Amino acid sequence: MGYNTDKARTTRRKADDDLMEDAEAVNLAADWADISQGLKKDLGHQLHSQWIKPIQVGGITKETGTLDLFLPTEFSANWVKDRFHDRLQLAWKIMRSDVRTVNIQVHPGRRQLPELRLDDGRRPANDGASAIAVAAGSINDSGFTSSVGLDPSLTFQAFITGEANVLACNAAQRMAATEQPQFSPLYLKAATGQGKTHLLHAIGHGFLASHPRARIFYCSAERFMVEFVQALKANQMIEFKARLRSFDLLLVDDIQFIIGKASAQEELLYTIDALLAEGKRLVFAADRAPQALDGVEPRLLSRLSMGLVADIQAADIELRKKVLVSKLARFAPLSVPEDVIDFLARTITRNVRELIGGLNKLIAYAQLTGQEVSLQLAEEQLTDILSANRRRITIDEIQRTVCQFYRIDRSEMSSKRRARAVVRPRQVAMYLSKVLTPRSYPEIGRKFGGRDHSTVIHAVRLIEDLRTRDADMDGDVRSLLRQLES
């Protein structure tokens, strides 16, 4: 009996420790989001995206107050250490009193890559600090397929689809299927945190499932350039080219960072031509369309856009809700009220990654403090994320958008006319004013020609009811919400 009690205590202690670690990781991630945003304003988009954005936050050594910051390559770690160490250290000290120093290094999980053999038996150069992540499908004695470099959690099954991303997801699944796709390359265009990297990894997993012996090349454009420069300096370009062109699927993320590197662009161009000529598959991802890539040779631009350019739009509110509900399955049987889900989906709109981070932070805080997840708790604990996302939508903006949508004159929002073609848009505008602004019913009534608050309440309840019964009305409101929140 005593042994079982001790074992139960140990298990509970371990669970508590794991929970504490998860919460600490969530808090560090939230702090890093604030610091990173500040550095972006100071350094500009280009420098921030190339050197600060790839930083991953490790843990804090409590005894020394040392915080580990990881970068994917020796080159990038040394570059950031030389130029930004003092600035990063100061920012973390200001943000957290328990941080006394920061340690910038290469991520320990990325120092070594498995040694790969080319088809003719030669070994490509690998100095132990290679930046290219390779997924090589290989069947061992147990029939297990290995996939080094691909995140196992980023699969098609875990990708939540909606109107904003269904085209890109379908195209990605075609690229991973057994049948040869009708287009190549596939170019995924999306802003930060909208799912383009997820789809890249999902394509890799799906391709390995349908082609178990396939060889996959996955990297970011910045890492591609680092490998290219290292091979050039080491006089190993022949091996580098042979290694690149031996793959069946090429996945390159953040292609915008290859801007201005003429020699690397030329090598990528030749690699694309060689792989396409052999019927290989290529997928690129970037935060802008090919035509918007400044400093890229016209020949390379034409190759990037010759297949299919699939745009991932910002997630609308319905997709954001679906994402939150899917993530909640991890925390079962924890209950999160519907109004909290609705609140998070409506207020954290910048990107899906930030939305998931907000949910994780809220749940971790609730579990650590023993509180129930509630709307009040969300408003109190997510102030930093909410303030960064909050774009103040005005009633004037709502009225203008609704009038343009229904093609009526702006004066009808305040007029006394009772024609259905005028009344219904006016009621929709009142409903949206209550949903999207903090204004009270009397304040909204005053903006609509001095109407009584009871008129506004009636309009809100009527549109809520119509949305459940009338598909056209629900579609109109969804479309207006997307316009106003974008």
Automatic annotation (TrEMBL):
Give a yes or no for keyword Cytoplasm in this entry. yes
Superkingdom of the source species? Bacteria
Cell compartments where the protein resides: Cytoplasm
Q: Where is the AAA+ ATPase domain?
A: 182-310
Please name the GO terms of the biological process aspect recorded for this protein, alphabetically: DNA replication initiation; regulation of DNA replication
The record places domain Chromosomal replication initiator DnaA C-terminal at 394-463
Region annotation (Domain I, interacts with DnaA modulators) maps to 1-129
CDD domains, from UniProt? AAA, Bac_DnaA_C
* Gene3D superfamilies the record matches: 1.10.1750.10, 1.10.8.60, 3.30.300.180, P-loop containing nucleotide triphosphate hydrolases (3.40.50.300)
In which broad location class does this protein mainly occur, judging by the first location in its UniProt entry?
A: cytoplasm
Q: Where is this region: Domain IV, binds dsDNA?
A: 367-486
- Give the molecular function GO annotations: ATP binding; DNA replication origin binding; lipid binding
Q: Name one GO cellular component term.
A: cytoplasm
Alphabetical keyword list: ATP-binding, Cytoplasm, DNA replication, DNA-binding, Lipid-binding, Nucleotide-binding
Annotated residues that bind ATP are located at 193, 195-197
Q: Outline the subunit composition.
A: Oligomerizes as a right-handed, spiral filament on DNA at oriC.
What is stated about domains?
Answer: Domain I is involved in oligomerization and binding regulators, domain II is flexibile and of varying length in different bacteria, domain III forms the AAA+ region, while domain IV binds dsDNA.
- Tell me the protein family, please: Belongs to the DnaA family.
Known role: Plays an essential role in the initiation and regulation of chromosomal replication. ATP-DnaA binds to the origin of replication (oriC) to initiate formation of the DNA replication initiation complex once per cell cycle. Binds the DnaA box (a 9 base pair repeat at the origin) and separates the double-stranded (ds)DNA. Forms a right-handed helical filament on oriC DNA; dsDNA binds to the exterior of the filament while single-stranded (ss)DNA is stabiized in the filament's interior.
Protein name listed in UniProt: Chromosomal replication initiator protein DnaA
The organism is: Erythrobacter longus
- Underlying gene: dnaA
